[in-house]
Write a structure and sequence with these properties.
The chain is an alpha+beta fold. The chain has a domain of 52 residues. It is built from six helices and eleven strands. The strands form four sheets. It has a three-stranded antiparallel beta sheet with strand order 3-4-5. Strands 6-8-7 form a three-stranded antiparallel beta sheet. Strands 9-10-11 form a three-stranded antiparallel beta sheet, with no helix packed on it. The longest helix is centred in the first third of the chain and has 34 residues. It is extended, with a radius of gyration of 25 Å.
Length: 246
């Protein structure tokens, strides 16, 4: 029994009765069971690997080299083949990003706190501008990057713009989070995509107090990225598995 807002007792809704004349679908049942088995095996292997790294960190608290195909916690590069990374309390990093930490160009916490900085791509995506605009803002001193170099200092691997160093210019990343929107696909299923933040707010009011707004207002039509696409288009969760074989 459940209590409603007016204090009366209500009987909880029961699932609809199964149709005894409907044949049990063994194929769907097998697909569901096989999918759950594969998922559990993947989770178990991942858990074992994480447990192994945690134990090794107790033995080597300053970190240790690790070989494998891991995504870097900073640049996001996912190794296509076995290569050496560095693992410590902040996460797993590629050697290029770890070298930038060792040299003092970026803090180690950049690996575990991605909300504390924007990448050049983040700036482009968050403010809907082209890459040339980001380069211009860097040249004009509007943005002050921490640069991660590669190839012995010959190439730019990545640039980070720390919010702490741009307090009056860049807003916290949470202010620019998109919202999830649901719509129907052609076959009638529910699908979700992330709509950019600027599609649902007054941009001037939203960025009031941040200097980036002044520089955005000076941009020409050719500076804007007008080819926005729907991000993270995914089917609704119920369609990922056949939960009921009937």
């Amino acid at each position: 029994m459940q209590s409603s807002d007016d204090g009366t007792q209500t009987i909880p809704k029961q699932p609809p009765p199964r149709d005894p004349d409907r044949e049990f679908d063994w194929e769907k049942a097998y697909q569901f069971a096989d999918g759950m088995l594969r998922l559990s095996e993947l989770c178990f292997d991942t858990w074992k690997e994480e447990l192994h790294r945690e134990r090794k960190l107790k033995e080597f608290p300053k970190g240790f080299p690790i070989d494998g195909r891991y995504p870097c916690a900073i640049c996001g590069k996912h190794a296509s083949e076995e290569e050496q990374h560095w693992c410590d309390e902040y996460g797993i990093k590629c050697r290029i990003c770890q070298d930038a930490i060792d040299s003092g160009e970026i803090p180690a916490s950049a690996a575990s706190d991605s909300e504390s900085w924007y990448s050049a791509f983040d700036i482009e995506h968050s403010f809907d501008v082209k890459s040339k605009v980001v380069r211009r803002w860097v040249k004009e001193g509007v943005l002050k990057p921490r640069t991660i170099m590669s190839n012995g200092g010959q190439s730019v691997h990545m640039q980070l713009f720390f919010i702490e160093e741009h307090k009056d210019t860049l807003p916290p990343k949470e202010l620019l989070e998109g919202r999830s929107v649901k719509e129907k696909t052609k076959d009638g299923q529910d699908a979700f995509y992330t709509e950019p933040w600027f599609c649902s707010v007054n941009i001037v009011e939203h960025l009031k107090g941040y200097k980036i707004l002044e520089h955005m207002q000076k941009l020409s039509e050719n500076d804007w990225n007008t080819k926005h696409f729907k991000l993270s288009m995914v089917p609704a969760m119920p369609y990922l598995f056949y939960a009921d074989p009937l």
